[in-house]
TrEMBL record:
<dbReference type="GO" id="GO:0004322">
    <property type="term" value="F:ferroxidase activity"/>
</dbReference>
<dbReference type="InterPro" id="IPR009078">
    <property type="entry name" value="Ferritin-like_SF"/>
</dbReference>
<dbReference type="Pfam" id="PF00210">
    <property type="entry name" value="Ferritin"/>
</dbReference>
<feature type="domain" description="Ferritin-like diiron">
    <location>
        <begin position="19"/>
        <end position="167"/>
    </location>
</feature>
<dbReference type="InterPro" id="IPR001519">
    <property type="entry name" value="Ferritin"/>
</dbReference>
<keyword id="KW-0560">Oxidoreductase</keyword>
<feature type="binding site">
    <location>
        <position position="149"/>
    </location>
    <ligand>
        <name>Fe cation</name>
    </ligand>
</feature>
<comment type="similarity">
    <text>Belongs to the ferritin family.</text>
</comment>
<feature type="binding site">
    <location>
        <position position="71"/>
    </location>
    <ligand>
        <name>Fe cation</name>
    </ligand>
</feature>
<dbReference type="InterPro" id="IPR014034">
    <property type="entry name" value="Ferritin_CS"/>
</dbReference>
<protein>
    <recommendedName>
        <fullName>Ferritin</fullName>
        <ecNumber>1.16.3.1</ecNumber>
    </recommendedName>
</protein>
<feature type="binding site">
    <location>
        <position position="36"/>
    </location>
    <ligand>
        <name>Fe cation</name>
    </ligand>
</feature>
<dbReference type="GO" id="GO:0008198">
    <property type="term" value="F:ferrous iron binding"/>
</dbReference>
<dbReference type="GO" id="GO:0008199">
    <property type="term" value="F:ferric iron binding"/>
</dbReference>
<keyword id="KW-0479">Metal-binding</keyword>
<keyword id="KW-0409">Iron storage</keyword>
<keyword id="KW-0408">Iron</keyword>
């Protein structure tokens, strides 16, 4: 018996359950998974930069650590969905993150740019799903991602503005204390 036999059978099972799921949507969703993992990796690098003894910003550390965990959850949510639609998950290598930031303001600006990039890609997934007449994929993106992205981007923009106004060492210190209980998604849509 060929070693490949069980895999071929499993692939056929996926093909049997697959319905109205275009190859281009599958590829775009794989790109989205990899973008979420890239963001997860970048936030993790940021979190542990701000945990260094010579930086010591526990609030910013916790905020980015939580953001990293959320990005991983996003990736896994799409992976789960991919399997429901009978697609194949293809993970690529994750790019090396930026390891250092001069201050919290620079890091937050980088985070906002990254979120805008992720959101742009989500909008492209949605547009492609509409073009391919795939209402299930449109609904999945709308229900799970679009509003959360916009909420998170607003929180980052608010933090950037508040930190710009507090640009002194004392302001930076107080801002970090303020961030200890903050999250990108836990204080939204109240
Ligand atoms: Fe995300
Ligand atoms: Fe995000």
């Amino acid at each position: 018996m060929s070693i490949g036999y069980p895999w071929i059978r499993l692939r056929r099972l996926c093909q049997i359950m697959r319905q109205n799921f275009a190859k281009c949507c599958e590829e775009k969703l794989n790109a989205q998974i990899n973008m979420e993992l890239k963001a997860c990796h970048q936030y993790l690098a940021m979190a542990y930069h701000f945990d260094r003894a010579d930086v010591s910003s526990p609030g910013v550390h916790g905020f980015f650590l939580q953001a990293s965990a959320e990005e991983r959850q996003h990736a896994e949510k799409i992976m789960k969905y991919m399997n429901k639609r009978g697609g194949s998950i293809i993970l690529s290598s994750v790019p090396e993150p930026l390891p250092k930031f001069t201050d919290a303001l620079t890091a937050l600006k980088h985070a906002l740019n990254m979120e805008l990039e992720v959101n742009q890609h989500l909008l492209e997934v949605h547009a492609l799903a509409s073009k391919q007449n795939d209402p299930n994929l449109c609904d999945f993106i709308e229900a799970n991602f679009l509003q959360e992205q916009v909420d998170g981007q607003k929180i980052l923009a608010d933090f950037i503005r508040q930190l710009e106004r507090a640009q002194t060492d004392l302001g930076d210190y107080l801002f970090d204390k303020y961030m200890i209980s903050a999250g990108m998604h836990n204080s939204v849509a109240k």
